[in-house]
Amino acid sequence: MEVKDTVISAFLIGKVVAPADRACTMMDDHDEPGPIDTSVLTKQPRHRSTLIREEGYSPVQFTEHGRKLNRWQCEHPAVLDLLRRAGFYYVSRLRRLQLDQSLLGALVERWRRETQSFHLRHGEMSIILMDVAVITGLPVDGGAVTGGGSYQWAELCGLLLGVVPEDIRGGEIKIDWLYQQFHDIPLDAPPAIVRATARAYILFQIGCSLFPNPSGNRVHLKWLPHLEDFDLCGALAWGAAALAHLYRALGNACIRGKVECCCFGTLVQIWAWDHLHIGRPEVVGSQPELVDMPLGCRWNTRLAFRDNVRTSDIEFYRDQLDQQLESQIIWRPYDDAVLETLPPFCLAGSQVWRSRTTLVCFHIIELHHPDRVLRQFGLLQHIPELVLAIPRINSRGRADEDWAAYHASYIERWNDRLVDIAEVTPGTDPDPIRAATVYMQWYWTITRRWISRPVQRPPLAYQPRGHVERVLVDIVQRSHYTIRRVLPDISGGGVLATLSQVADQMEAVLETLPTLPHYVPPGPADYGGASTSGHAPVYSPPMPSSPIGEPPYADVTDPAPAPVPQDPARAGDIVYFRRRRLSRASRPVGDLGAF
């Protein structure tokens, strides 16, 4: 029987482990960060998380030339019109951020190229096509960004830029040359100059931020042929190509011995601010109006960095992520209310957001697996299938390679991207708590469960200090589970509101504990003199303390929740409405709420 089947069977039949056996297993559990089952994270010996406890370990440094990019604010009306046609207008409105190296460094220690996801305490999360579209406005649906073959680079520059740079090396030109040559053209510039400037600005965006390379100050001319016809350029999936490049960069950086990650760092940082509880600054003053802009532009303003931001303290971020509560994760920051505020261009490719497909960017092929992070779509998470391993090749010594021909089979899969759309599997338990429990039982065996150095490591499992404490915790767990189960069947606003408030109070108590055993409803309670040493289950995953989301097929009618008081510090932020847990009037099972 496979591991997945064993976990599910153990859950269904209420598998019992002797207290002594559980105590021994838990002792091993505390000492072993995982994975216990190596069928998923097969590259753990090469992963940088194995080196953190060693002396001399250096975190990865992220490279993005955001300051250069922010220096060139393109506002020429005719150029902006061409950027719209080419698909680069919205990302041009996104100001690049000063990167929080410690936050990004802590995240890359949790990135796994085997699954294309971050392995966090309560499950996998990832940057997916939806995030690229919503945050940047880059098109995620369209033709593959590929090509290759032999070009006369000087001739190509003369044809499409109108001028030939003196320093062309290996098909690359200096980024600064583009700025110096094109950043200040007159309003009445002739059409040829306007077209050349638009191409130069797109190349500048590519080299500074979207597809940076380790050279630090150069951009390859392989992108230029795609910029000849602006309408054909706009029909390409530049967002999917940027995500492929990002996956490759993160996958390389998470390997031991790597010191640099050249990628679209602003995208990673905004994604982290949107989904996680740490590292996020506060907006000073009013939110910028998002008129014809992607959602990432709401950070185009003054920011204040408080105690949850430690840009020079990676160990702080490691510890916070190791101890993260489920309530601190924002699984779905881009709910329907947020999406309705975005320009149509950001939503144009929404049909591919859940596509299990290939991502193509010249020589780079990476896999997109939204089925592993269905909670980011408000769906229940099942135990996902293994990710197919594909060869990861580089372009060294292959300057004349025709990548469209070389990767024809992968490009064909991209062309069929609407064929395989991730859905909740039919066998997933429709009860959100039980579904999350089954998933977490499996996940806790296959993941790297903590990253911190041993002296920093938080306790993995709650251990009651005596019989009375065990009884109290069990009562709270039982009561919390029972109330959540009956809420959908209760009529009467007063009773429903009262029980919801009691459940929230219990949940707040349970979440203060380091971690709790997953709660599977047993038979009649037995509060005899059982030993507390084996109270925790075999692997003691973090308990799914609240429903993750209601499955689309659940036959449940939820009463509308009462308005939640808004945190004044976040007033005007269209994504985050911080919950005040103890003042909520109701939260029925499956309600995701407004984040």
Automatic annotation (TrEMBL):
Domain Aminotransferase-like plant mobile residue range list: 87-443
Descriptive protein name: Serine/threonine-protein phosphatase 7 long form homolog
Region (Disordered): 544-569
BP GO annotations: meristem maintenance
Domain of life per record: Eukaryota
Pfam families the record matches: PMD
Compositionally biased tracts (Low complexity): 546-559
